[in-house]
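Re: the 326-residue chain
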Amino acid sequence: MVTAAALILSIAAGPAMGRVPRLMPPLDLFAGKPKLRGTVRHVAIPLPRPRPAEAPKAEEPEAAEKPSAGEPGKTAKPAPPQPSACRLALTEEIAIAPSVPDIKGPGGCGGEDLVRLEAVVLPDKRKVAVKPSAILRCKMATAIADWIRSDIVPIAAKLGSQLSDLDNFDSYECRGRNRVAGAQLSEHGRANALDVRAFKLSNGKSIYLTDRTVAREVRESVLHAACARFSTVLGPGSDWYHEDHIHLDVSERRNNYRICQWNVWDPLPQTAPLLPAERPVEAPPREVAVKSDAAQKPEAAKSDEEEAEEEKPAPAKPKRPTKKRR
């Protein structure tokens, strides 16, 4: 702005002063900045050599790492775990036992490879319902199914009827042994045990395993079959916790140690004796204790005055003064 104004003033005053104005050099707007000189050269970038034919092929990423179709940037879900050999063997021809998710409870409760045993399928396609359904490990459910199919059905047939239901008293429950607080974890807490109370027949009758009115032969047959298949059998006589049901489990112990504690009590008598039996005639006489001379002497008769004196009430004792409490 200042330079332009000075230039205009000099031009205007030049003719008047008789001088020819001298123009200033043009203003360089790019002063102080470096100027590019020379020519630009194009340099060729070297490319990698081709891959030899004998080189091994690069490994492709696993299918789980590949993005799923239609969802770029997202990995595919991992494949579900393969069923166990027990699960493959426990088919619908043996039992209605759908798989359930693994349970991970507090204190070590729960388990893997679990099923919900709803019914046992017999060879003739009939079903023995488990009421209510039992949550068990597959190994335990298989043992129950084999026990019913091979042992309990023939026992029911000897009674002239067919097996229809199994009375499930308890299956999976996260608790200590015998529901005692602080006790060791029960096999029920591992889904590895079943408490059986009775079997129901198609004619409406029920076989209660701890009922002493049930024939002893029937209860002993169930006992021998259970102890041959399960590693633990607890019933009446083991402790007072198992007086009204039978506990079964397949717990694994050292040296294949097994426990079978079930006392099959004799049936109760039909009629209880009301009176003691008569004493036989040939029985020796009972010995009678001999009384002493003092006890044998009769007491002397008391006079009327002595009797009246005894009937008088005893004089009342004077009351002691009570002290006031502070």
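The first strand starts at residue 95 and ends at 96.
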